[in-house]
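seq:
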Amino acid sequence: MEKNIPLHLQEILFATSDLAESKQLSKLIKQGVVRKIAAKIYTSNFVDTPEVIIRRNLFMVLGRLYPKAVISHRSAFEFAPTQGGHIFLTYTYTKNILFPGVTVHLLEGNGGLEKDVPFIEGLFASQRERAFLENMQVSRKGGAESKTLPRKEIEDKLEQFIRVNGENAINALRDSAKDLSKLLKMESEFDKLNNIIGALLSTRSSAVLTSPLAAARAFGFPYDPNRIDLFNSLYTSLLKKDFERLPDKNLSDKAYRNFAFFESYFSNYIEGTRFEVDEAKNIIDTNKPLPARNDDSHDVLGTYYIVSNCKEMFITPKSSEELIEILQYRHRVMLASRKSKMPGEFKDKNNFAGDTSFVDFNLVKGTLIKGFDYYNTLSSPFAKAVFMMFMTSEIHPFLDGNGRISRVMMNAELSKAGESKIIIPNVFREDYLLALRKLSRRGEPDIFIKAMLRVHNFSSMINGEDFNVMREFLNSANAFSDSTDAVLKF
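struct:
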């Protein structure tokens, strides 16, 4: 009991062999100041249910009643009761004890070892190697009553460990687990663990794996599971909606090229490659970069070269292999002058935007391959376009040019379907980026879809054989405005 807090104010009190404390507790019980909520456990809380009180003070209770016990098996990963209210401790004997809302399973075994983690209230927690070995044991119960996590979850945890810490770290964990298994008499459990790790590292058969995430790593294409969850969220929301077809009105070569100019101009402007319209037009008309801005000029030229080419913009991927080829080819053309940015090659280090970290460079191909499965089952051109754009942007597969390549991939989907391509004008930049962030950081797809529908509707109105007429339309819509007070006019 807390010595500095009066007994009648303590939420949890325990029966004790201390004569003075025992008498004081008995007095409080007679006075109706405390009540019994479980064997040897009392409380001064008359408001909350015993279940709530026990859950809130669970580790205090466990530490007091089972000193030096080890939070083990699945509980060493979860640090909380299962959904069914079960928690597992390794102790000096085996027994199941029922508390209000919680069943404590005591499992006879070794107490806290040298590398086990000291926990609150005198408890220990199994070190990682021990926890993995314990979860390789056979459990006679299933579901929430099982002392072990499902095999798939263990494989996912091992895959995540490799993803975060690397292969050297998992090999070190395996070596440590091997030594520990002898002390714990868990040699057979180590054999199972060793088979899983070997499969993940492709040194043993992948047939032992049950997790899709683990299998993807075994086959050489590990992916980012958090991004796949985001893709699934967007995919599900897109499936629930019907989208109006907005046919492309720029069917002649001249009209298509006029639109392509502004498509290239605005796409580069968003990324900070900013020219006056006349400067950009001169670069494209003469095919000559400005001497003082060679790389920036080539960015505009490279983007325009792709988006003004009807044949190129009618190409969309039929397989994940084609997706990778198309991405790399278009990126190589777009960033041809920026050799330090590895044009046409996926990134070799991680990239960030503020406090946002994009997909780990080791997971780019696997995440693209997994994301393609969602894209490939969509039928609406608009749905496929915005999914492709978000997927490419979110993965950020290249060192630079990811925003531009994602919009190129989006508009190729629309061009192939005969729909109007999408321009993101300067005045809509913040709306566009905010909608992307809402989806990326909060998993809110509807705001993103709504923003893209609005700008698609606007873009469908941009058409004509006369460049200056198209330019004037954009000007009248505030498209070129950088002001935060300006809005896109229809």
